[in-house]
Amino acid sequence: MKNNNMLKTFTILILFIATFTGAYASSKIDYQQLNKEIDVCSNERTSSCFLNLLNKYKFNEIRYYYAISLENEKKLSQAKNELDIIVKTEKNNTKLIALAKEEIQKINDLNTKMRNANNADWGDYFSELDNTAKWRNARGLRVFVTGRTGKEYILNKAFQIWDNSVAEVSFTYVNSKENADIICYFVDRLNKGNAAGVTMPQMYQTPDGKKYLHKATVEISMYKPGTNGKYTDDNLLCITLHEIGHALGIISHSNNINDIMYPTTDTYQRYSISRRDINTIKKMYH
Ligand SMILES: [Zn+2]
Fold it and tell me: What's 261's domain CATH number?
């Protein structure tokens, strides 16, 4: 796709140069030679090749090629600078100005998209949380799964997702409540309002105000509160992932609906944890 675009752009450029040969006739430029050099650069596909060409001929048409080659190398701000120069300095070639403006718009859109993606996927919400606690060591947390509802595999899957996603956190299963850090089970009904799951953390505070977890109990409801409808496996996985997040120390909630720690009570339609959830836990245990 990119190759085709590049090829198209080059064809346009050659047309430009053919068009303006007359205008530049007095400058004694060998256009056959120039076209050859453009061919060489378009095969080589490096911005440095076009930069050399630009320094030699100083045409905005070549600057345009140079900008496109920078874009292909993901040097977007450099590309934008060159396109800006075209818009500001080009006097004759209105088509080229229009193309440069179009390209600037494309880069702006791409930047906005990347920024949004960064916000959604790569940040963390640690600083927004008003209540957190942490395990002194979250590697090897001992988990006891009980209840025998036949849905225990969902708990295992949820723990595995957290375990695989965050290096600072891992779990090991034990056979008794007494030996466990985190105790988990399904119940038919929680009878806690609309809550589909609940986590009861036991914490202690050090004299300098740091809160540490020393036990957490997670309960997940099999039935939707106030109805005779059961949650699906996907719903239960989503609820379980959320409650484990609490058990790991995110006591309050995220404000972003894409995060597993968003306090939703309606759909439970997320099947994994977000990059932000991961980064938040990483930050806590860093
Ligand atoms: Zn919650």
Answer: 3.40.390.10
